[in-house]
Amino acid sequence: MVMLCAQRLLIACVFFATLSSSPGFAQSPAQQASHAIACVSEHNRELTRQIQLMREARDQLRASDAEIRQAAEQMIISIQQRMNELAEAIQACVPESAQLRTETRVETPQGTAAAVAQENEATEVVERDQRISSAVQARVGQRVDGRGTIPASRVRSMVRTMGPGLDRCYDQLVDRGALVQGELIVAFTVTFNGRIDRVTIEGQRIGDGRFANCVRRAARGMAAAQPAAGDVRYAYTLRFGVD
């Protein structure tokens, strides 16, 4: 008798679930909101658990035992796959009409990004594909404007003084649950009296506003060299999350 009731209840649930998802059944805004809250909350609990597992796996990458590190690498891949599944499940919690559509848009670089994208008379390459810190690589560093000059070797040394600060920015980003790789351009002016000025972040493809502000502070904290003949501006394309 109990089994029969349970079967009837299951059939009823399936029937109403099918009915509610059919084109002829329109949910009210309140019903849609209630469904979204319950659905996202359920998946959020699992996502929180996966984030904690990811942090534990990341910590195990520092272990001295090679087998533990290898197991941690495999665990990270599995967790990333599970997070991708959860992202798709969370997206399904809202009506299709409310889901964002992906559009392809080609943007023409502007400002410093344009100068970095194509060399011109004002540009001078300082370095390419060199590690700045444990988590950051300089894809390209260039002089992009100004009449001042600083020897390339001194510029490279100057930029590396912000390495510890960049690592902290990246670690904080990862601690917020964003285990990612990506790039941004940090541009800065070295004034004639050896001060860092006009620090800007462009072409950001990693992190959020907090991350950008952190990188900006790290750049302002560089130990600047004093240029000859006036101000000079540099732009560095930085890649975070390097192996």
How would you summarize what this structure contains?
The protein has 243 residues and is of the alpha+beta class. It has helices spanning 2-21, 29-60, 66-91, 111-117, 152-160, 163-175, 209-220; strands at 124-131, 136-146, 182-190, 196-202, 232-240.
Average of pLDDT: 79
Rg measurement, Å? 25 Å
Order of helices and strands: HHHHEEHHEEHE
Strand content: 15-25%
Number of strands: 5
Tally of separate helices? 7
- The side-by-side strand order for the widest beta sheet comes to 1-2-5-3-4
Helix content: 40-55%
Instruction: Write down the overall geometry.
Output: elongated
Class by alpha and beta content: alpha+beta
Terminal CA distance: 61 Å
Largest sheet: 5 strands, antiparallel
Q: In total, how many domains does the architecture comprise?
A: 2
Flag low-confidence runs. 1-25, 101-109, 115-120
